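Suppose you are handed a protein chain with no further information: no name, no annotation, nothing but its sequence. What can you learn? This example shows the usual starting point.
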Amino acid sequence: MQCVPLKLHFSILETMENIDGLLGRVWEFATPATAYHYDLDSNFLAFHLMAHMSYHFTGGGCGIRSLLDIFLLRRQNAYDEAVLRSYLAPCGIEKFYDAVLNLLAAWFEGETPTPLTEKMGDFLLSGGAYGTKQQQILIKQQRKGGKLKYLLSRLFMPCRELKYRYRVLEKYPILYPIMLVRRWGELLFGGRLKKSVQEAKIAMNASKGQSEDVDDFLRQLGLEAT
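A reasonable first move is to predict its three-dimensional structure. Written in structure tokens, the prediction is:
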């Protein structure tokens, strides 16, 4: 018997300011089909795929599922290119979309791959669905502004991220200090301390060259400021 894994998200938002503004308007692009079924506008669906892909890319890796979804939508002419770009540009991920198209052209249309598309391909295929732990940490470290800021962000997780672990913060953000201490307790006594120490070691042992390479990779994809 085969099983299909499903991943349940509490929200369509990605805790990324550049894309969450438009993602939060999802119901404006959804049309009721039945009492419990809404059809999502195909242009917005394509935008969500790219936004979600950019989220996973800046988190360390995303596998090839989202890439194939975009390929299939384009093959069926399921969305309007101009409309999609009007969504992507204000969110700062149009350059990333162009890089994705170049990768698709290299993989499925026989175009000569560029150094960037080759690197994207290696990044996608070697990292699995969510990227290797080293990929995740190196990218997050660069986005946070260095090793120290990254480690502090892990110790003092911002409320906008912590609320996805403790849903009570959605309604009562004033409880943030209490939930922060609760998280520390779970790290210390919940069997997750070893994992956290390993992550800290990876972050501290990352070389300057590795960090600069990741920074250049994100810059070429237009994701350095997301």
